[in-house]
Design brief:
Residues 16-25 have low confidence and may be disordered. This protein has 13 helices and eight strands. Helix 9 (203-216) packs across helix 10 and helix 10 (223-235) crosses helix 12 (286-293). It is mostly helical. 46% of the residues lie in helices and 11% in strands.
Length: 332
């Protein structure tokens, strides 16, 4: 056998051994670990399959990050990874995980927004759930523009319907805002169209009124009554003197307001400026919206929290003298 033939034979043997090694490695690397481990795996913004594969191996979900990398490079889809939270298991084949990450088959989560909270507080809930950062959601909520019932709105405070939503973990701020806005349109707008207000308020003002009473009243039965009180004050150009608007102007919630707080220079200060504030101070729920659209016809102009009852109820009165008496009784 000539020297050239022997060299060719050795090269062929080496290639054969390498091929067998690669096949054995690939077979093992692409076999599930089958330990039963299951985790929520977050794919970060801008992350590649190589980076995700390294973390999946460290988490004990796959045998080999290199095997995953070879598989995805072969398919030419290394940059097709979609951000979000995925439910992955060590019982899954790497090919199944790759398919899931490419198709964006993210885990969906339930998110509940309490009635009356602000867009900023909603953003905080979304960030805590690792869905959207608070900063991104608030920016979207403040700058989103829409037209409802012929009214132009820039900003969605008051129009983000508080409810429980099942959302994908890779939902965008715009998609989240639109989802909540559509819920507002379907739940609130039909009720607004058949509203019964002595003084027809615009949709913006009606929602603003609803946001005030949502924050002020904790007893559902008092919502229409409190709405009636504010309507009476609006009619006579009385100051609304709503503590919740002061808290909104201050940028937070305080158990007790000081006299200094009441002096804050803000269009939301209803102790200084007559009429409703410039816009909603939160996102009211359905019952508050109903009450604002159909306030009770009451003679009251005043109310005070009934501290004595300690149940969140209020004492409603017609005259200022009655109001002063109610304040004394409420504290006894």
């Amino acid at each position: 056998m000539g020297r050239g033939c022997r060299l060719l034979l050795w090269v062929s043997l080496v290639l054969l051994v390498m091929t067998v090694f690669v096949l054995l490695f690939a077979r093992r690397a692409l076999t599930p670990l089958n330990t039963g481990k299951k985790i929520d795996f977050e794919v970060r913004k801008g992350e590649t399959f190589s980076e995700a594969g390294n973390r999946l191996q460290k988490e004990g979900i796959i045998r080999s990050a290199l095997g995953l990398k070879i598989l995805i490079k072969t398919a030419g889809r290394d940059r097709d990874l979609k951000q979000g939270i995925y439910e992955v298991s060590s019982n899954m084949r790497p090919a199944e995980i790759i398919k899931m990450l490419i198709n964006g088959e993210v885990k969906s989560v339930w998110v509940t927004f309490p009635e009356g909270i602000t867009a900023e507080e909603m953003g905080g809930i979304l960030e805590k759930k690792k869905i959207i950062s608070q900063k991104d959601f608030v920016f979207e909520a403040k700058n989103y523009e829409t037209v409802i019932e012929g009214e132009h709105f820039k900003g969605l405070e008051g129009l983000l319907y508080p409810d429980t939503y099942n959302v994908a973990t890779n939902i965008t701020p715009s998609e989240m805002a639109e989802l909540m806005l559509e819920q507002f349109k379907s739940k609130a707008v039909p009720l607004y169209r058949v509203r019964k207000q002595r003084y027809k308020l615009s949709l913006r003002d009606s929602v603003t009124l609803a946001s005030l009473i949502e924050r002020e009243a904790s007893q559902p039965g008092e919502l229409p009554v409190m709405a009636g009180v504010y309507m009476n004050r609006l009619k006579t150009r009385m100051l609304l003197n709503c503590d919740a608007t002061i808290q909104y102007a201050l940028g937070g919630r305080k158990t007790e307001l000081t006299y200094k707080d009441l002096e804050i220079d803000s269009p939301y200060n209803t102790y200084k400026h007559p009429g409703l504030p410039p816009g909603p101070i939160g996102n009211p729920g359905l019952e508050a919206l109903k009450a604002a659209f159909r306030p009770a016809g009451v003679p009251y102009y005043y109310y005070v929290l009934n501290w004595k009852a300690n149940d969140g109820s209020h004492i409603f009165t017609t005259t200022y003298q009655e109001h002063l008496k109610a304040i004394r009784e409420a504290d006894q």
